[in-house]
Specification:
With 128 residues, the chain is α+β, with helices and mostly antiparallel strands. The chain has a single domain (4-126), classed as 60s Ribosomal Protein L30, Chain: A. It is built from two helices and eight strands; from the N terminus they run βββββαβαββ. It has helices at 49-66, 87-97; strands spanning 4-7, 22-25, 28-34, 37-38, 43-44, 74-81, 104-109, 119-126. Strand 4 (37-38) and strand 5 form a beta hairpin. The two termini are 23 Å apart.
């Protein structure tokens, strides 16, 4: 018997490919990358980087809650940026969603993201 389960919520964008919003294995939840899609419209929220980042964290929060956790249970984030000059903005927006101790994190500059997004974030959660 598997202890693996798929996490899904209508409060975050539906998967736009062959993946799940998250997968829970034991007390660990693996979050798929979230881009700044508004769940109700499945459209990018705006062209503004800060607004995109805020929407991504809202989407992540919805998936974490659907898994039975809270943002303070996030232990690792990987952030993908099409422009690394937006790094300071990521820090500012992230500070509105997370308190110390912050999760471990990586930020990676890449050429492009799905649907023309400027930011994508994936993560790992350990439920308390």
């Amino acid at each position: 018997m598997s202890n693996k389960g798929v996490i899904h919520t209508d409060k975050a964008p539906a998967a736009i490919g062959t993946y799940s919003q998250a997968v829970k294995a034991g007390d660990t939840v693996y979050l798929s990358g979230q881009i700044p899609l508004v769940p109700e419209t499945m459209e990018i929220i705006s062209d503004d980087f800060a607004e995109q980042t805020e929407q991504v964290f809202k989407n992540i929060s919805a998936v974490v809650e659907a898994a039975g956790g809270k943002l303070s249970d996030v232990v690792k984030l990987n952030i993908y940026l099409t422009d690394l000059s937006n790094f300071a903005t990521v820090n500012e927006v992230m500070g509105r969603f997370f308190k110390q101790p912050y999760p471990a994190r990586a930020a990676v500059g890449i050429k492009e993201l799905p649907k023309g997004s400027l930011v994508e974030i994936e993560g790992i959660v350990v439920l308390s």
